[in-house]
Write a structure and sequence with these properties.
Strand order of the largest sheet: 3-24-23-22-21
CATH architecture: 7 Propeller
Helix content: under 10%
Structural class: mainly beta
Radius of gyration: 19 Å
Strand content: over 45%
CATH class: Mainly Beta
Oligomer: single chain
Low-confidence stretches: 1-38, 291-302, 377-382
Distance between the termini: 29 Å
Number of domains: 1
Shape: globular
CATH superfamily: YVTN repeat-like/Quinoprotein amine dehydrogenase
Largest sheet: 5 strands, antiparallel
Mean pLDDT: 85
Amino acid sequence: MNHHPANPLLSRRAFTLGGAALLGAAAAGSLGGTAYAAAPPSGEWADVPIPPLSGRAQLYGIAAPDPWHVIAGGTENAFQPDANAVMLHRGMRGWTRAPLPEGLAVVNDVRARHIADAWAVAAGPDAAARTDLLHWNGRRWTTVAGPAGEQLYAIELDGTGALWATGITADGATVSVRRHGRWTNTLTLPGSGGLNAVAAGSPSDVWVGGIGRSSADPTPLWHFDGVSWTRMPWGTTYAHWILQIEHVAPDDVWFYALEQHPLFPPPTLHHWNGSEFTVHRIPGPSDPVGGVGDVRPASLVGFLGSITSDGRGGVWVSTPSDTSHLLHFDGASWTRETAPVPVTAYSMTRVPHTTTVWAGTQVGTVWRRSALSLPGDPLVPR
């Protein structure tokens, strides 16, 4: 039996094919792009001890605003009547559980620019009936009003601290921004399938993406320049579902996307260099990292992984097509690193101004990749 998250669009990388093993396109090799870093930053992936979680646990969102603090959110006792939203905090003295408002079943998204100013999207057992926007002020999580009449999907903080949110109303998909406690709608797309990915470098450099109504529709990808929204051409035969957007700079934006192809190929990695897109096939477990693999079976059930910047011009990728490895792409070539355990990282984030990366996984564990060890939080390989 296949289980679904509380709301697949709230969980930005969720997808289910009903358990059928379908033929997917090859996922190796590069179809263009510019080389940035010659190799991954130094360090290794390792499991980090956290407070025990109950039952089947999953961590869908993670934020690391500085080298000493991490916030990870998700669920425990997943898919059970007593499913409970979970929020873990890491500080100088280690990890603790942070209380959340009653009745929440899952935390789907977490963002933070400062440990005393963090945001999250959480849902009850029925996300359509209850989806909360949460704020952390350094002491407690409280519910904050979202845009009136909207069910939120994803959130992002821009460089000024303004909160961007995608959602859905009776009129269609929306993008809103919260400044000084007030929400302003900036985009409404009637009849849209939903915008479940958002990334913002500044108030004048915001990207949103989602899923189209059909494979023949244009890929729903939009860019905001501070004045107006522009639909960005995707230039492929089939529409893509934009699963995640990673903004590094105006000329360095990464997209983790799934083609809405009849054969359901695995996700691909795309890059925007300020003037054009390039697409890069993601290697599978048996594909040569420098070559092109063959068509292979792919059973894509559940979450489709995540991406994050490596801090040196490349990107880390976790994909369910190869749970034994974390993949690194430097703009020209791929390398593999062994995962602490063979599961998918549902969420990944990089500590600003460093090459340290944190990840929350499908089994409710936390990984870290860093060349440095932090006091009170030893890296424990498993």
